[in-house]
Design goal:
- The chain is α/β, with parallel strands linked by helices and about 375 residues long.
- About 35% of the residues lie in helices and about 20% in strands.
- The strands form two sheets. Strands 1, 2, 3, 4, 5, 6, 12, 13 and 14 form a nine-stranded mixed sheet that branches. Strands 7, 8, 9, 10 and 11 form a five-stranded antiparallel sheet that branches.
- β1 (about 20-25) and β2 (about 30-35) form a beta hairpin.
- α1 (about 5-20) runs parallel beside α2, α7 (about 210-225) packs antiparallel against α8 and α9 (about 305-315) crosses α11.
- The two termini are about 35 Å apart.
- It binds zinc ion.
Length: about 375
């Protein structure tokens, strides 16, 4: 939700229009291209992903899904195909959540799933989400107008780079997604006592950063307790106050990201983590506060769509494995409103959220072809 994203929207909107779609930006900041069907009243086939990225992101995460969807619709119209149902290609606003530390903004927005207080979340410069939306040209007062009524989306398709190494290691260009493992995002705030690093004896300290360090190690130990399990746990941001080399850290705020395809196991690990935080903060005489920012359960793709994608892969002589998605996607939000399916495209060495991220144009064009075939089967044309 920045001027840069707007620029990307402008470029994508031109391509959408070239593909025969009408475009607009809704009040959540989503770019929507619509190809009217013969019966515009029917629930739409929605295809989409996102054009926003991460501060240290690559060029394919999200972008591949939006551009392949536009390409597929372009091929659809160029081949003179028509359908009863309308098609909408959406570039969802702020999927990544880096700026306001809460993602899937646009895709939750259109489903009326924003949470109380979300507009008051601030970025690191103190700018609220509300202000960012208004600056983007949206009107938060008119959110309702941009929501989709229950039943108005027939199903949702998303193509995305895998963002992991499984397809690359298996040497397969395309994968069929079975489901998305839901993330648990926590923010942990530890409070100790500032003091001079030269004078406060070790046993009298209330060092918030030391507590944070032990908790970070605990997150890693919890996530790796059963080798080979798909559980992943990460602490990737930390703020220290007052952050001076000769003042004992008084306050530490860090984020925890815990994911698993097995919700029961994830819940068990969350409980373990909370117990470790309790014990570690007690040991260092710290007080703590845990805020839950996101708590999503694993969501599985619709069997009938998976079957269509598998068949389209077979028709192209692709031996496409089925795999879970560790990262979440806009499809996660849409899964609560309709059936969904996802196509994964191999990414080099599994590298993502890194400028080195790469998917070959050959693989992407195969993905777009599978997507087009899937669109046709879903629309029965
Ligand atoms: Zn993405």
């Amino acid at each position: 939700m920045t001027a840069l994203e707007k620029e990307a929207f402008r470029a994508a909107a031109v391509w959408m229009e070239e593909a025969g779609m009408k475009t607009h930006i809704d009040n959540f900041g989503n770019l929507i291209g619509r190809l009217d069907g013969q019966d515009p009243a029917l629930p739409v086939l929605m295809i989409g992903s996102h054009l926003d990225s991460q501060p240290y992101g690559g060029r394919f995460d999200g972008v591949a899904g939006v551009l392949c969807a536009i390409e597929a619709v372009k091929a659809f119209t160029e081949q003179g195909m028509v359908s009863q149902r309308s098609i909408e290609v959406v570039s969802f606003a702020d999927e990544e959540g880096w700026r306001f530390t809460k993602g899937l903004f646009g895709s939750r927005g259109i489903l009326g799933k924003l949470e109380p207080g979300e507009l008051q979340r601030t970025d690191k410069d103190g700018i609220t989400r509300e202000k960012a939306l208004i600056d983007f040209g949206c009107d938060p007062v008119k959110f309702k107008e941009s929501e989709y009524k229950p039943g108005s989306i027939f199903c949702f398709l998303e193509l995305h780079i895998e963002q992991g190494p499984i397809l690359d290691i298996a040497n397969k260009p395309i994968g069929v997604v079975s489901g998305i493992s839901g993330p648990l995002w926590l923010t942990v705030k530890l409070k100790g006592m500032a003091g001079h690093t030269g004078s406060v004896p070790m046993h009298l300290r209330k060092d918030a950063l030391l507590g944070a360090a032990e908790i970070i190690v605990a997150v890693n130990e919890i996530a790796t307790q059963v080798p080979g399990n798909p559980t992943v746990g990460t602490v990737a941001t930390i703020n220290v106050f007052p952050a001076s080399r000769n003042i004992i850290a008084e306050e530490c705020v860090f984020t925890v990201d815990l994911r698993d395809i097995d919700l029961e196991r994830r819940n068990k690990y969350e409980k373990q983590l909370r117990e470790r935080i309790e014990a570690i903060t007690k040991k260092h005489q710290l007080s703590y506060e845990i805020t839950e920012d996101t708590n999503s359960e694993p969501r599985y793709c619709a069997n009938w769509i998976k079957e269509i994608i598998h068949n389209e892969c077979k028709a192209l002589n692709l031996d496409a494995p089925e795999l879970m998605s560790g990262p979440f996607h806009d499809a996660l939000a849409l899964s609560y409103a309709c059936d969904y399916g996802m196509i994964f495209v191999r990414c080099k060495d599994g590298i993502s959220h890194n400028p080195l991220e790469y998917a070959s144009y050959e693989d992407l064009s195969l993905g777009a072809e599978v997507l087009l075939g899937t669109i046709c089967k879903v629309l029965k044309v």
